[in-house]
Amino acid sequence: MPSVTTNSRPKPFLDPAYCKGCLRCVEACPKGCISPGTRINPATGLVPVEINLEICNGCGLCISACPEPFGLRTSPATPGAELEREFQIKDPSKLFGRKVVDLHESPGLPDEEIELPACEPLVLKGTYAAAIGALLAGCRHVFGYPITPSTEGAELMAKILPHLDGAFVQAVSEVAAVNMMYGAGGAGVPSMTFTSSPGFSLMLEGISYMIGAEIPGVFVNIMRGGPGLGNIGPEQADIKLACRGLGHGNTHALVLAPSTPQEMLDLTMEAFALSFRYRNPVVILGDGYLGQMTGQVKLPTHLRKPGRPAWAVWGDRSHRQNLICSIHLAEPDLEEHNRRLNAKYAEIASREQRSDLYRCEDAEVLVIACNTPARMAKGAVEAARRQGIKAGLLRPISLWPFPGDALAEAIRHVRQIIMVEASPGQLENELRLTLSHAGIVPPPIAAVRHFGGVLPQESEILAKISEFREALA
Amino acid sequence: MNVFYDHFERHAHGEGLKGHSTHYCAGCGHGIVHRDLADTIGELGIQDRTVLISPVGCSVFAYYYFDVGNSQAAHGRAPAVALGHKLANPEAVVISYQGDGDLASIGLAETISIAQMGLPITVIFINNAVYGMTGGQMAPTTLLGQKTVTSPQGRQPAMGKPLRMAELIAQLDGPVYVERVALFEARQRVKAKKAIQKALRLQMEGRGYAFVEILSECPTHLKMSPEATEEWVRTQMEPVFPLGVKKDLAVEPWFDRHAPSFSPEAVLGLSGAEPATVRTAARHRLAPRLGTKDLSLKLAGAGGDGAQIAALLLTRAAIDEGFDSTHIPSYGPESRGGTSYADVHIAEEEVLNPAAPDPHVLIAFNAPSLAKFAPAVREGGLIIYDRTMITEPPAFPPNRRVLAVPCTQLAVDLGRPVAKNVVALGALQAATDLLPAAGLLSTMRHVFKDKSSLISLNEAAFAAGQQVVDPESE
Lengths: 473, 474
Ligand code: SF4
Ligand code: SF4
Ligand code: SF4
Hints:
- The structure holds 2 protein chains of 2 kinds.
- Chain A is an alpha/beta fold.
- Chain A contains 16 helices and 19 strands.
- In chain A, the strands form 5 sheets. A 7-stranded mixed beta sheet of chain A has the order 6-5-7-8-10-9-17, with helices on both faces.
- Chain B folds into 2 domains: about 10-250, Thiamin diphosphate (ThDP)-binding fold, Pyr/PP domains (Rossmann fold, 3-Layer(aba) Sandwich); about 265-465, Pyruvate-ferredoxin oxidoreductase, PFOR, domain III (Pyruvate-ferredoxin Oxidoreductase, domain 3), CATH 3.40.920.
- Chain B contains 15 helices and 13 strands.
- In chain B, the strands form 2 sheets. Chain B has a 7-stranded mixed beta sheet with strand order 2-1-3-4-6-5-7, with helices on both faces.
- In chain B, β11 (about 360-365), α11 and β12 (about 380-385) form a beta-alpha-beta unit.
- One iron/sulfur cluster binds next to α7 of chain B.
């Protein structure tokens, strides 16, 4: 223990338990007050320095050389004590007691719904509709990197956001963009990006971190032809990535698949709400056609002014205790965290299934398709019905979770399923997994598939349906 | 006064001595910088406003210690995360604390691009010339000849010479203040703290981006005592990484962001929404002459032929008329000088399939598109082509109505060749009574409302197209 002295300048104090014996203070002291220790501290197994303050002048140089927060100090951490200029020895066991914590009343601030006056429907392309949906959902922070065919959404945001005192940042890469979302989302504000397949691949690392740290954010991925650079034609071959491959580790996110510009707006708006409800990213998967498709878009009755979540790292007193982090160093902690995530995924899986059924009541041939191919399929189902074939369409709107409940219901009379997709069966895999987990043996499954920027056409879907006319008769 | 937690709850649940000691090795420079930073945050009175971004590296657990808002970032991405925080809450004082692997290797793109943006954030860069957390590998700042586990013979020039980040950042236009400091002696430690203080002040005052590089000690991976490491930094590192101010601009406070607006009027106005109007007129029946409830059209031509604009005009007019309608453009390389075509659907109830592989109507502005798409037009359908540009039309399939309209010629006569697309719309209207002419014209007036000089011209073009459709043109 240092000796008790009273002086105009505070003298150092050291609890040997918090000294690592690095000796940086030894050479820092001009007076030679500190010397290497000779005895092992049984509590730490380290050798703390020894201090003799007899000739100490309180210069404080030793303190500024000490790397340990609770190593050499002038004053105890008790609030108010910092103001004491007079150095006193206190009982160490009382020195480092808990700080009197300021109790902050409910740091959360709820969202506000603000009524919108009635408006004429807009005539918008899909990417624009998603952008307007995001604005109406209260998103004012957009981060992106230009990539065809999604960029126009970002371009519109770049044009509009400055007028709303929002921020559009063109990042140095998709990797930077997703991490800006990590920051803004971690601060509790709604943020989004527009990207397309290769860019989405680059964002996956960040998405895994966001899921791990439970950060909301909306990713609009306008899928294009792959693999690699592929082309900019419409494809649906990121279904696997979005549903099964969101970066490393145990990850899932709600994946929504609009099929009209109207849904691009509606689902993007909803995506923000879901993203905050579950503190998890949400992915909107569109195809290149949908991104470019112009159509009628009706506006909602309300827009959302986002509040501030209690968990946000906002940068004020009431949120100071918060931490955004995906690290859980101890194995049991990380296992527990994964269990919590699994519970969240299970809740999403049971509550957030979405689908659209068209003429499924008595369907014997069930066509299943999402995005733009679902529209070709709808045309084909309509044409098949005119030919007297009992065809129906199940359009999954949520791809993860796959709408298994609606599917189980819809396939009761079905004798043939036809999967229509611009991918090598990625949607079919989701369907098969869902049925398999539910223990349902499906009817035979046929497929109309295209790749590389080619979409299935109505005529070939109709032809495929017609193949089964005799078998069903 | 400092802003460390009184108990390091997050350090192994704060059990035992870990509740009050760091995870750093004995004599590690990180601890000294932590103390300087904690003291400075306390002295500046910004504890509540501070958001500290922990990187990946030995300082990955900085959030164990600082009683401020904390976020832990992926490897190298701390400045991007910091930027997100700063834009979300401009009042926050955001600090990106990074080591050399994080900042100067994997995060180089983020480091440089965000420095160049110059928004007021503070980057604290710990340069100890080696990877700590992963076990002593070569860092971008490792000295030539320095042995690490991945440069066992010593770093060679072909492995890259040590990267001088402070100099690199200083020559960017974005930052206002860049300094390199050190910790190896009391005098340097005083300067280090002052630099941290200044960097934070510049942010608080909204003056800009500041970068403080701190030469630090990693006794563990240099395999030396802390004292010897200090000496090594002084004698070996300092000559390669000269200390001092690299950039210090006098800049007036400029960073002043307002809270975002959520005003419905502003959002609607910027989205191009217009107040709802009351419709009284009965709805026009869709294309009575074509006998369909879901009409598909293809408009095709060369890049500048205006096929997309005509398609959008149709779509918009149909929607204004209460129909469902879609337009899909061809895009990408095709739209750069090549063929540009548009698929349009107009449906009484709902457009099922927005593609038009076998359209009811084809409007072709050049020979390649006529040759390509005419065979696809369905039976009983209509083909309109620009007779001025296509002098030798192909043979048409039977049972298609074909109108040869001198679109370009009529537009040239009006003094505006690009109006040929509107001429074609006039012809389409006369041939099909697709939508009410008045409706189409009012949509056109609306679309061109910012270019009023074009309105009367386009009206004339539309009328010219209407008039030319007579039995003789077929
Ligand atoms: S305060 Fe100054 S004189 Fe006293 S022990 Fe520390 S360095 Fe030595
Ligand atoms: S600098 Fe601190 S940790 Fe190191 S020997 Fe001195 S008191 Fe102990
Ligand atoms: S490995 Fe080096 S940098 Fe990391 S804590 Fe230990 S001494 Fe510090």
